[in-house]
Amino acid sequence: MGYLSTIDIIGFWIGIFLTFCILSFLYNDNPLYKFAEHLFIGVSVGYVITRQYYDVIHPKLIGNLIAGEWIYLIVLALSIMFLLRAVSQRWSWVGRYPIAIVVAFYAGLQINGVAQGDLGPQMSKAMDSLDVAKVNINEASIKTLGELPGISPSIANAIAQQRTIKPFANFDEVLNLKALTLVQKESLESHRYGIAGLEAQASMDDEGRYWVGILSQVLLLVGLLSSLVYFYFSVEHKGVIGKISSVGVWTVMIGFGAAFGFTVQGRISLAIGRALDVLGQDKDPMIAAQIHGETAALVSIALVVLFLIVWERKTSHKNG
Question: Where are the alpha helices (DSSP H) in the chain?
Fold first, then answer.
């Protein structure tokens, strides 16, 4: 790796400082946080507008008009009508027409996309057999092997190459593959046992059942049917129907909880990634040594704390 220029190093320092400006909101809403927030929004909007111009407006509108595609005058007219909402209160009502057209087209495209991308696969999954057989290591595709616990795509490829020479007789032969590294062998060994481990989900032939998978299919079917009963309002939810619908409520709540937990984990992952970036652990050691992220972080913390102290005193004095 080469050496960083001065402007690149300053850019990294500014990024670290802005990170702690955002984190200062944990103490209280303050001017530093608002400055970083507004800067982020402004830069994001500017970037999006620039990309939209060079990726959409210039090649698809201006370029086609220059080429004599006069049908795009309709698009130009709709764009001007839309901009009237921002420049003229008197003619702002004209902007409703392009908005209505965009919403209608987008809704039509989304309905089709959701039906094919979400609804169709969900219906197909709901109609899967409740009987879940173990994956046959000697015959499964590389994609199916890669979905097993502990098996990465590289391990799946190594297994696929070896079984063409000689089929596997047991899991010990899989773990002792010469093509695997020590880390890959440890990964396989750590995922080998357990109720949902490698041996529970796979075998060397077509015999055996994956019992946790069968239980998962049963729970999925019960949860789906009970949720549909809960949203079926043509029958009063009493007696047996009421009990089934209560199971549907629990299913929906568990689904919402899982979705919320997934979102929280995603935000935590972003925070961890930002921390690794500040500490330089996601960069080449030579690059990290030039940035001095730890020093920049300590200086940034000191500046933020000093600003908060001064700002808090001025606020208290003004309120007093």
Answer: 6-23, 31-52, 63-66, 73-87, 96-114, 120-126, 142-146, 153-165, 171-175, 182-190, 198-201, 211-230, 239-279, 285-291, 293-319
Strand, helix or coil for residue 136: strand
Chain mean position to CA 245: 32
Other beta carbons within 10 Å of 253:
10
pLDDT in tens, the chain (320 residues): 568 888 999 999 999 999 999 999 998 899 999 999 999 999 999 999 999 999 988 998 889 888 888 998 998 898 888 888 878 888 888 889 989 998 998 898 888 888 888 888 888 888 888 889 999 999 999 999 999 998 989 999 999 998 988 899 888 888 888 888 888 888 889 998 889 999 999 999 888 899 999 999 999 899 999 999 999 888 888 899 999 999 999 999 999 999 999 999 999 998 999 999 888 888 888 888 898 999 999 999 999 999 999 999 988 877 76
Alpha carbon of residue 174 to chain centroid: 33
CB 257 within 8 A of CB 282: no
| CATH 1.10.150 domain range(s) in the chain | 135-208
Q: Are 25 and 32 in contact (CB under 8 A)?
A: no
Fold of 135-208: DNA polymerase; domain 1 (1.10.150)
Tokens 């357990």, located at residue:
194
Question: CA angle at residue 129 from 124 to 132, to 5 degrees?
Answer: 120
Run of H or E including 203: strand 202-203
pTM of the model: 0.66
